Amino acid sequence: MVKPEVEALIPLFVIYFVVAAVLAFFVMRKGKTKLNAIDWAIIGVGGALIAIADHVVGDAIFLPSGIYPIVNPPVWFRIFVFFIVAAVVRKVGVGMASMAVYDIVSDLIHFSFAGEPLWIIEDVLTYGLMIDIAVLLTKGKLFGIGVKSFALFAIAEGMILGFLFSFVHPFFTYGFIAPIVFGFVPNHERVTYLLLTYIPGDVFIGAVSAIVANRVAKVIR
Which stretches are transmembrane (predicted)? Predict the structure, then answer.
């Protein structure tokens, strides 16, 4: 039986994904530069690397309770590689496409497609959409690429995206999708705990990743 306070939030999650899908449509329409073959190749390889960084490298690092999840290797590696992929392509669509590839490869790594297409919908319309909105708003100059004071822009954008990313797992993954897939009742105290522990780490790694992504993108493209 679903707790009343949890049941009351379900319509809000549904509304979010409906609104996000509509917003994603308009964001893609607004993107003036289309993805080319090289972009798709980078997205394909990059999306796979994001999954490996998260579910292979990150999951192999054990940290004791109290340090984790403030320091969260899987999430940190995911953000780090994702920002680099987004910075290299710098076109609307890179975020959602990369997350779609990431999700499919993640399922292959786990040898399970249980819960699909819910996981793809979540990742594409949260992390992916956020990156694409950032690309659109910065007019392709993501993380200060092509700007003189790039460090300030990179840090600011990285921190903002990191802050926004920190809401996804507590609310959407643990609080909504995972209970549907695995059949458990989410605990709102744990949602709060996850949010409060994710925010500082994601904001920090967001800033660091944005600066590194800027430098890598400058070298590659």
Answer: 6-28, 40-63, 75-93, 159-185, 191-213
- 92: nearest Cα among 46, 48, 131, 45: 131
Give dist(CA 3, CA 95) in Å, integer. Answer: 34
User: How many whole angstroms separate alpha carbon 118 and alpha carbon 125?
Assistant: 11
Which residue segments constitute the domains of the chain, with CATH numbers given?
A: 4-220 (1.10.1760)
State the alpha helices, DSSP H only, in the chain.
4-7, 10-30, 37-52, 73-89, 94-110, 118-123, 129-137, 150-165, 178-182, 188-220
**Closest to 141 (Cα-Cα) out of 213, 206, 43:** 213
For 57-112, the pLDDT digits (tens) are 999 998 888 888 889 999 999 999 999 999 999 999 999 999 999 999 999 988 67
Q: Which residue from 219, 209, 218 is spatially nearest to 81, judged by alpha carbons?
A: 209
Q: What is the pLDDT of residue 181?
A: 82
pTM of the model: 0.91
Spatial CA neighbour of 77 closest among 164, 206, 172: 206
Q: Do 195 and 203 meet the contact criterion of CB atoms below 8 Å apart?
A: no
